[in-house]
Write a structure and sequence with these properties.
Elements: H1 3-17, H2 25-30, H3 33-42, H4 49-58, H5 66-80, H6 83-91, H7 102-153, H8 160-205
Helix pairs in contact: 3-5, 6-7, 7-8
């Protein structure tokens, strides 16, 4: 997908999901619209953010200073749309609203995608670690339950029926443990692969950002 198409798509999504402006009457009346524009630009807010401010201030019969806002937003975007910032935005897993001007977007997007790839690898590793931790807990629980069933099987105080039930349950627990161990072993191998990819990718970025 071309960068302009990507930016438009993400901007459209943000338009549907974006937060409304919460400017108060006092802010609408006395605010420095150039500063508002700069702050929005420095955060990479899409152009429709002004429309949200306009809607909020319309309730107080105040119209934004369009020229001042746009001038400030251009200054803010100059700061936001730098490659180093693009990498940080991507690495944090944040969405890009397609707000950068054409002359800055190509380098910004290249850095953003590099950062987002790092975020994806780190997220994959974190997810694998969560899955391993879940199986560790499940294995510990299964081991405790198995010990309890084995105790019942050899208990002099247990009836034949209780021993039989415990024996069948122990068999199921052994199978459960084997399944969990197989899953954990597969996850450990996958974690090693992702860790290696992550190390190599981080090393490839060492001199770029």
């Amino acid at each position: 997908m071309k960068s302009s198409a990507l930016g438009s798509l993400i901007a459209a999504v943000l338009l549907l999901q974006g937060c409304a402006s919460t400017m108060s009457e006092n802010e609408c009346v006395y605010v420095d619209w150039r500063t508002v524009g700069y702050e929005d630009g420095a955060r990479g807010e899409p152009a429709h953010r002004l429309g949200q401010h306009r809607k909020a201030c319309a309730d107080h019969a105040v119209a934004p200073d369009l020229e001042a806002y746009q001038a400030g937003r251009r200054e803010g975007l100059e700061e936001f749309c730098q490659p180093g910032n693009g990498f940080q935005v991507g690495a944090a897993g944040r969405a890009y609203a397609g707000s950068c001007p054409t002359q800055l977007e190509e380098d910004f997007l290249a850095a953003y995608r590099a950062g987002h790839k790092l975020h994806d690898l780190e997220s994959r590793l974190a997810d694998i670690n969560r899955q391993i931790a879940y199986r560790d807990r499940a294995l510990a629980q299964a081991e405790d339950e198995l010990n309890a069933k084995e105790t019942t099987v050899i208990s002099d105080g247990a009836s034949i029926q209780e021993r039989a039930q415990a024996l069948f349950a122990a068999k199921d627990l052994v199978e459960r443990k084997e399944q969990l161990e197989d899953e954990r072993n597969a996850l450990m191998k996958n974690r090693k692969r992702v860790e290696n990819k992550l190390v190599k990718y981080r090393n490839s970025l060492a001199y770029n950002f």
